[in-house]
Amino acid sequence: FDIPGGRMGAKFKPASHTFGFEQWADSEVLWAANGGWVFDIPGDARENAGNGKVALLVELTVRDNADRDPPQVESEVSAAGWARVEWPLNNFQKLSLQVRENEKVSSEEFEAAGSCFRLDLYPRGYRVAAGDGEYVSVYLHTTPFQDQLGHRLKRRFRVGLLRANPLASSEYLALNQDPSERAFFPPHAEVVAVLGPAPDPALPPARSAGVQGWVPLSFFTQGQPGPKGTIPKGGTAPKPDALKREFVAGKFEKGGVVTLLVDILVSDQEEGTVA
Fold it and tell me: What residues are paired with 112 via a beta bridge?
């Protein structure tokens, strides 16, 4: 039985090594003789319920960040105005098995496009509708420092994958994709959002935005879908084995690395909104 509010997530550090709940459960309800939680009551007498026993069940989901690299921000902005961030995820298969649905792993904070952010990754999806399959979700999140500045930031960003093992140019021609681009961006992976305080002080601030159904988890074991329709002249259909290797450095089942890419368009803070 889950007690309401009885779940928490915490990052343990040498200076912060203890976490818990100050008001975990109502003691009168917990120790009630007819509540169903107390056993081994002396004499089976209701008045002795306080001397009985209650068994606590603690479930831990442990994730070790030791093998996770911090995001790297490229020093130069692209000609189109994109600031690129690369976040390598070592042993992505292990990560996808450790983390449950609606649970996330967060990157270290970084500065890009003049603002401070972190990335939240949900390897098994965040609030993905039942029946839609297993999808990975990714969100760009502001940091406490950025929140304190009180700026409203209009940001356009896109989330993609590094092509760790690029296909041949003719294969990308068959997929109608640019062979010179070292990143793959799904068609729906671009987001425009205003982050920061809401115009109405009574409303909560907007601290994150992202892509709920970014890519299927099967992308890392089967690859992206093959060509659809007629293949253009000069194009060749990619082999299944090549598609499986495209986004994973090494073997997926043996600690392969998946690198998440985020391009953030450099822009100023929001000055107004046009309806």
Answer: 115
Return the structure tokens found at 137: 């979700």
Length of the chain: 275
Percent of the chain residues past pLDDT 70, beyond the cut = 86
Reduced to 3 states, what is the DSSP secondary structure of residue 96? helix
Tens digits of per-residue pLDDT, 240-261?
999 999 999 999 999 999 999 9
- Reported as a single tens digit per residue, the pLDDT across 168-187 is 999 999 999 999 999 999 98
Residue 196: pLDDT band (50, 70, 90) is: confident
- Within 13 Å and on the Cβ side, how many CA atoms surround 253? 3
Q: How far apart are CA 208 and CA 213, in angstroms?
A: 15
Return d(Cα 159, Cα 84) in angstroms, integer.
10
Contact 163, 132 (CB under 8 A): no
From 162, 87, 92, 83, select the one nearest 119 (Cα to Cα): 87
Buried b (16+ CB within 10 A) or exposed e, 122-159: bbbbbebeeeeeebbbbbbbbbeebeeeebbbbbbbbb
Residue 48 DSSP one-character state: G
Confidence (pTM): 0.73
The residue among 106, 94, 118, 93 whose CA lies nearest residue 219 is 93
